[in-house]
Amino acid sequence: MLDLRFALFAQFPALFLLALIFLVNYLTVRKRSAVKSVLWVLLFGVMLAISILFCFLGIQAEFWTIKTLFQLSVWSWLGVALVVVFVLLHLVHTAQKKHAKRVMEKELKKAEMQKEEAVAQAREEGKAETMRGAAPAQAPADEPSDAEAPAAGADADALPDR
Q: What residue numbers bound the domain in which 16 lies?
């Protein structure tokens, strides 16, 4: 028969493993964020206290003894397996986020380089056009430039005959 107290108290190894994971998280963030480090330490303390409490309550309820404490039942293994699965899922999710961020930064750099190349090319084209525009202005005043010649002919045709 299923005893829910036994299933609950048998989770002490999983809670202890979770407490160790919280301790590792604390050690990784302690220098970067004071708030997160306090959160991880609190979670570590709570999970460790609950794990020890469930262990002693299981002994008091005579579900196991000190000698049989580390002969884990099916419920204990189920809890440990769930913790391991969730930790692995979290690690995979974190790796995917880092990869997506890296790819996005790479694409952003690539787009920025293309933009800079386009701006540099436009500047060079603008300089070339200003150089072409400056060349006819330096032509002698006696000779009409190529741009003025058709305009002068068009004005002559527009004058009425007298």
A: 4-134
